[in-house]
Amino acid sequence: MKNNHTAKAIVIGLDSITGLQTARILSERNIPVIAIAKDLTHFCCQTKVCQQILETDTGGEELILTLETLGPTLTEKAVLFPCADTSVLVLSRYRDRIQEWYHVVLPAAEVIEMMVDKVKFYRYAQENGFPIPKTYFLSSREDAVEAAQKLLFPAILKPPYRPSEWRKHTKEKAFKVANEAELLSIYDQYHRWTDVLIAQEWIKGTDINHITCKLLF
């Protein structure tokens, strides 16, 4: 039987595999879960492990308004589990408004801003000598031409994040490009939907070499 006096976990982004997995792991440990999702019709929201599922935009200030409404109904401070970068960014920027009701376990705001923004993160990695693939930031076609001339192919072309305008036109998170001409062609087609594109060397390997780490403390 679940302990109703246990502090609740607030899973933000149930409408994703990460959100569903997080909710299931917490529920298996008898931690009561309240979930928040942008799309209640998503198949992940059909789970029965949550005590309550709220619908709101999980990537904007509407999330904070929802948490401010929920907060006073809680018997003790809850722990937030954001399952997407956009949610982490919103919680970080508005943390002062919700700390009365929630444990906001996040690094300093400037660290969050750097890690969520891939351009800032890659620049930080370059400046500190981290072993990352050769990376170029394309803010103009001149940048794209320079990157195309210097990169070894195949390469990856991707936005630092997917703004609404990008998602409106494509579901792709990144493009694998085979040569200089293909890089420039894709740049010409997609650059208008994001402020900057990232061109990066392709790292060979199978999916088994992709490591993901999820921790619950």
Quick tags:
Rossmann fold, Dna Ligase, domain 1, alpha/beta
Provide structural commentary.
By secondary structure, this protein is of the alpha/beta class. Helix content is 37%, strand content 17%. The chain has 2 domains: 9-114, NAD(P)-binding Rossmann-like Domain (Rossmann fold), CATH 3.40.50; 117-201, ATP-grasp fold, A domain (Dna Ligase, domain 1), CATH 3.30.1490. The strands form 2 sheets. The protein has a 5-stranded parallel sheet. It has a 4-stranded antiparallel sheet with strand order 6-9-7-8, covered by helices on one side. Helix 1 (17-28) links the parallel strand 1 and strand 2. It starts with 8 loop residues before the first strand and ends in a 16-residue tail after the last strand. The mean pLDDT is 91.
Summarize the structure in short.
With 217 residues, the protein is of the alpha/beta class. Helices cover 37% and strands 17% of the residues.
